[in-house]
Amino acid sequence: MQTLSERDQAVIWHPFTQMQTAPLPISITRGEGAVLYDEAGNQYIDAISSWWVNLHGHAHPYIAERVSAQLRTLEHVIFAGFTHQPAVELAERLLPILPNHQAKVFYSDNGSTAVEVALKMAFQYWHNIGQPRTKVIALDDAYHGDTFGAMAVGGRSAFTAPFTPFLFEVDYIPAPVPGREEEALAKLEALLDDNVAAFIFEPLVQGAGGMVMYQPEILNKLMQLARSAGALLIADEVMTGFGRTGRLFASHHLTEQPDLMCLSKGLTGGTMALGVTTCAQAIYDAFLSDDKFKTLFHGHSFTANPLACTAALASLDLTLSDETQRNIQRIASRHEHFTQVLQRYGCVRNIRQQGTILAFDLATSGQTSYFNNIRDIAYNFLLERSVLMRPLGNVLYILPPYCMTDEQLTYVYAQIEDLLKTL
Ligand SMILES: *Cc1c(COP(=O)(O)O)cnc(C)c1O
C-alpha cells in the first residue's frame, strides 16, 4: 500500500519546494501543544510555529470548540451588504489594542492580501485626494508576501527574478541594522519627494529576509522622516504581531505610529487563513464620496469568513490571558539565557533576539545564501532529533508557539548545541 507521502508526491506541488530533488514530505496526522505526530508515530517539536502562524499549540481545544460552534451557526456569508457578529466583534476588539490612529478594519484572506490591500489603500488615497503619488520605499531584503504587489515591495532576489519585468518600481533603503542606521537615514532622505506614496516595513524584525533585527529608535527616525515628506507609513506586522516581539505588536515598541497595518499569521492563532488591514481615519475618509469611483474596489470571496473571525476571537482570548503573557516573558527570558550559551560557539555569529524570536548565523566557508547547503545539514540534523526548525540559509532561528514548555525548550536548545558541536 502507498503511504500518504507517496500519494502526495503523485498529485501535489508544494510551496517553496524544488519538486525534483525534495525528499518525500512528512505526513502529519495530528498535533497537540507544540508537538506534531507523523504517520509512523514520530514526534516533532514545532520550533517555528508551523511557518510562524501558531501561537497556542496545535488543535487547541478552546479554539476548536469555538470554531465548531460557529460552523454549526453560520459558516460564511457574503461580506458586501451583509455583516455578522464575529467580524464586528473582532474589529471592535482589535482596534483598541492596536497602536493609536488605527480606525477601520478591512478583512482579507492572508498576509499577502493584507499587504495588497494596504498598498491599494495607499495608492488610491493619493489618487482620491487628487494628488497622485506612484512611488513606494521599502527595505532591502524585505518580505511582504508572494502575490505581485507584495512581491514588488519585497526585496529583489533569486525568488523574484522571473517576475522582475512585471513588478512596479520600488526604491530600497538598507535595513537599519546596528551600524547601518545613518546610511539608511541618509538614503531615505535622498529618496523622499512628493511622489512617495508610502514607506513599508516589517517593524523590528524582517522575517523571511533572515530574521534581520533592528532597533525601535532608528525606525522611529525613519518613520518621522518619511512622514515629513507626506508618505504613508505601512507597518507589516503579519509576522511580528500577537506577541512575537515580547509586546502585543512590534509597533508598541515605537513612539511613532503607522498609518496602515497588516496582520495575519498569528491572527487566528494559526488555525485558519485570515488577513486584516487597518488604517487611520484620514485614509478611510479619503474614500468617502458621492463619486462611486472613489470606492475601494477590492474584496475576496472569503472576506471576513465567520469561522476565521471566530478563530481569531478565540485566539485573542488566549493571547490576552495572564498565562500566555507569562509564557511570552518566560520564553523571552529563556532565549536570553541561551544567547549566553551560544556565544561560546565559534561557528555562531550575530546572535540576536527580539522577544520570543531568537536567531543567529552559522559561520560557513564559502557562499552564504538561502541555497547554502548548511541549511539542509542543519534542517536534517534537527529533524532527525525530533525538532522542526527551518533555517533561512545559514540563519538558524527559534520562533516557538507560546505553549512550548520549559522542558521542550531545553530539549530544543540541547539539540542546537549538539548541531553546533558538529560544525
Ligand atoms: C508571511 C508574511 C507575509 C505573507 O503572508 P502570507 O499569509 O504567507 O501570504 C507578509 N508579510 C510578512 C512580514 C510575512 O512574514
UniProtKB/TrEMBL annotation:
InterPro entries in alphabetical order: Aminotrans_3, Aminotrans_3_PPA_site, BioA, PyrdxlP-dep_Trfase, PyrdxlP-dep_Trfase_major, PyrdxlP-dep_Trfase_small
Keyword list, A-Z: Aminotransferase, Biotin biosynthesis, Cytoplasm, Pyridoxal phosphate, S-adenosyl-L-methionine, Transferase
Pathway assignment: Cofactor biosynthesis; biotin biosynthesis; 7,8-diaminononanoate from 8-amino-7-oxononanoate (SAM route): step 1/1
Residues involved in pyridoxal 5'-phosphate binding: 111-112, 236, 300-301
Pfam families: Aminotran_3
Reactions catalysed, as given in the entry: (8S)-8-amino-7-oxononanoate + S-adenosyl-L-methionine = S-adenosyl-4-methylsulfanyl-2-oxobutanoate + (7R,8S)-7,8-diammoniononanoate
Cell compartments where the protein resides: Cytoplasm
Enzyme Commission number: 2.6.1.62
Sites of N6-(pyridoxal phosphate)lysine modification: 265
Cofactors named for this entry: pyridoxal 5'-phosphate
Top-rank EC class of the record's enzyme: transferase
Complex formation: Homodimer.
Role played: Catalyzes the transfer of the alpha-amino group from S-adenosyl-L-methionine (SAM) to 7-keto-8-aminopelargonic acid (KAPA) to form 7,8-diaminopelargonic acid (DAPA). It is the only aminotransferase known to utilize SAM as an amino donor.
Family listed: Belongs to the class-III pyridoxal-phosphate-dependent aminotransferase family. BioA subfamily.
UniProt-recorded name of the protein: Adenosylmethionine-8-amino-7-oxononanoate aminotransferase
Gene: bioA
